[in-house]
Amino acid sequence: MMRNALFGGVNAAVLTPMTADLAPDLDRMAAHCHWLLGNGCDGLGVLGTTGEANSLGISERMAVLEGLVARGVPPARLMPGTGTPALTDSVALTRHAAALGCRGVLMLPPFFYKNPSDDGLFAYFAEVIGRLDSTVALYLYHFPQQSAVPFSHDLIARLLAAFPGVVRGVKDSSGDLANMETMARRFGPAGFEVYAGDDSLLGSVLRAGGAGCITAAANMTSAVNARVYADPEDAAAQTLLASLRKAIAGTALIPGLKALKARHAGDAAWLTLRPPHLPLSAEAASRLFEAFDACGLRLAEAA
Amino acid sequence: MMRNALFGGVNAAVLTPMTADLAPDLDRMAAHCHWLLGNGCDGLGVLGTTGEANSLGISERMAVLEGLVARGVPPARLMPGTGTPALTDSVALTRHAAALGCRGVLMLPPFFYKNPSDDGLFAYFAEVIGRLDSTVALYLYHFPQQSAVPFSHDLIARLLAAFPGVVRGVKDSSGDLANMETMARRFGPAGFEVYAGDDSLLGSVLRAGGAGCITAAANMTSAVNARVYADPEDAAAQTLLASLRKAIAGTALIPGLKALKARHAGDAAWLTLRPPHLPLSAEAASRLFEAFDACGLRLAEAA
User: Looking at the complex, does the CB of residue B119 fall below 8 Å from at least one CB of chain A?
Assistant: First the structure.
């Protein structure tokens, strides 16, 4: 288990609540961030896949980050997603995050053009890094199921050699534990931080020398994630976490988490999603609630 | 063959030249647009896949369009790509294009989140259309190989029924001729314009009731495309066009087209690409030139 990681521990991939006209709801989001930090989260992976950031415009993404900081969410705890298909937008978002005080950003590869070469991806990240005016850390976002553009280990090795201390780690949402373990063993000794993107793999990734997790289920389960982080050998906590994750993943992940949050907060405004995501049907929601409740988690009162 | 289509005929998927610092090169691009309009193009599909638009930031995309219009490219001939993963950015780009005088835009589906439901995609386009303040036509961009989010015929039927005259056609870059023919036959009678995304299928699509093409090879071959459009039964022209397309598609498409344009214009500045795209190797370029030249096309002098 890596002990000196910049975002070591539990990071929720924070949901983005929306107003009725589909704008980011900053008051509700900041309250949720504060709740997470008070209930097991060490950091907050805002504006990622789970946060519907790819459904938000570039200026909206900046406004969300500014809004959270203005509402007292500590920027040093925030790891915003800043990767877009476009070089210049990715640079603009990263510079903006660094200027607000964020110490790290989570960066998708450019994900429109498929099958880019490793040389092309290296050139892209080199160009991004060359345009930054800060030492903000870049975390690579490996999520082939959504981005369709994976990070090869060869590419990671080249980036680490060329940009030590800048390319600082990876969030692996592939679900492929062997890939996470291999990265932690191969690159961890050079300070490369491996974060599990799947709660059920948190304990295993920590035991392989990983740094923690950045996960969707943690929007609800962060207190359990924290138990696993505190003791990666705590089998009961890891089993509970895996069962919660499985219950949540039984429906569409983002609508399901919003339904759980809405119920927990007693606040139907949390149900709003930006298309192409749609709310769960009543039937799917009640199946989800039943599966989640069967795990027996007692949640701390919502903010 | 559809005779009254808004962009009926030959539309090049226009390349975007870049300056040494990877910014869009508006002077070179406008000159290329004028050359295309003088050499067989009826319209210009700017800021699409071939134009590396997905590698450009939102504000850069707006600046390109403004720059072309300022340089005398008629906005009524322009069909810019305005689809992004983000609802609000897609709306902003579309409103901007309409305000500049464009009569139609080419819209990718939101392409980050994979496997969206047809209900979710319908909700997305309904929301986009509801936010427009004009009657600009939307052309759906079906390109599953790059977007990974196809348009089903059911979805197209629903959009046509709900937004007649607004959802006006499709660019099909799948390479699947049967899909184009089926759409032209099923939706063409309602005024739905089908554009081939592959030059080698232009004649077939026209004969099935399609409206024309929006294609990458046309950056070089537009005069031949125009012969096919003028007479879809001209087998010699279609054979030449298919051989040119095949020669070009033998290497990476965008770098290959830029290499051909650079050679034709005697202007190495055309070789610049924004990562993750990279220039062709010298060897790949000479193989491409040889294959292209073997087709025997005599190009009009470059602008």
Answer: yes
